[in-house]
Write a structure and sequence with these properties.
Blueprint: E1 2-3, H1 4-7, E2 11-14, E3 19-30, E4 35-42, E5 51-54, E6 58-61, E7 66-68, E8 75-76, H2 81-89, E9 96-100, E10 105-114, E11 121-128, E12 131-136, E13 140-143, E14 147-150, H3 171-199, E15 208-209, E16 215-217, H4 225-234, H5 236-243
Parallel strand pairs: 2-7, 9-14
Antiparallel strand pairs: 1-10, 2-3, 3-4, 4-5, 5-8, 6-7, 9-10, 10-11, 11-12, 13-14, 15-16
């Protein structure tokens, strides 16, 4: 997988003669498929028309360049109505808000990862409050220009680490992956419940502050489920601070 920012601005090399065709200007997202279908090309001699490379024409995306077999991989978007329509939709993914189908805003997408073989968007990097998470694309319902709509329980599948996601070609495989994630989520909930039971009724040995400096629990306060939950919502590092300052 490649980050979108790792692809943008890469030189595009024609491997038939070793020449540089131009640079990657932007990634054109197909909202129906949840994939990058074209790479637009930046070239100083092409100021009037917009040109692009179909992702299926890409031979490889390396650390230093995108390669294609021949210069004829580049097309004029004015000649391909479907491609031109996708460009005009301006689906950018990064810097869009993440909202559930019932209207709850759960974060902002700061980056996305693309399968460098197929162009499929695999994983989203999400900023939620002060923390960063990863969310796999099967949880997405709608790829919008300003807002990406996800399933109602999407936040339960936030991960703190990036996992390489294999190609998912059938609905059955999606279900299997979601069931496995749900089982993992249930295990995490059991751990959280045990943590809560161990903390309720204890007292804080010091003031507990949020990352913004707001006092969440004063020194000597008795811990309740409510104030423990407020600390957990403030972020993992704040919760760790709490567990290290109890008596």
């Amino acid at each position: 997988m490649k980050k979108s920012t790792e692809i943008q601005s890469l030189p595009i090399i024609n491997i038939s003669d070793g020449s540089e065709i131009g640079k990657v200007r932007s990634l054109v997202v197909n909202p129906e498929k949840g994939s990058v279908d074209f790479l637009t090309v930046e070239h100083e001699d092409w100021q009037i028309s917009v040109r692009a490379i179909p992702f299926k024409k890409v031979v490889g995306i390396g650390e230093y360049a995108v390669t294609v077999e021949h210069e004829n991989a580049v097309i004029d978007l004015n000649e391909i109505p479907i491609a031109n329509s996708l460009v005009n939709k301006k689906i950018r993914v990064a810097d869009t808000r993440l909202m559930t189908r019932k209207g709850q805003m759960i974060g902002e997408i700061v980056e996305f990862h693309v399968d460098d073989e197929s162009g499929a968007i695999r994983t989203l990097e999400v900023k939620s409050k002060s923390d960063a998470y990863y969310l796999d694309s099967p949880h997405v319902l709608t790829w919008g220009k300003d807002i990406v709509i996800v399933k109602e329980d999407a936040a339960e599948y936030f991960r703190e680490t990036l996992v390489e996601v294999e190609d998912i070609s059938t609905p059955q495989e999606v279900v299997v992956m979601q069931e496995a994630a749900a089982t993992q989520a249930d295990g995490l909930k059991d751990i959280e419940n045990r943590q809560m039971e161990l903390l309720v009724g204890r007292q804080t040995a010091d003031d507990i502050f949020s990352l913004e400096g707001e006092l969440l629990i004063p020194k000597g306060a008795e811990l309740t489920r409510t104030n423990i939950q407020s600390v957990k919502e403030a972020g993992p590092s704040v919760f760790v601070e709490l567990t290290m300052n109890i008596r």
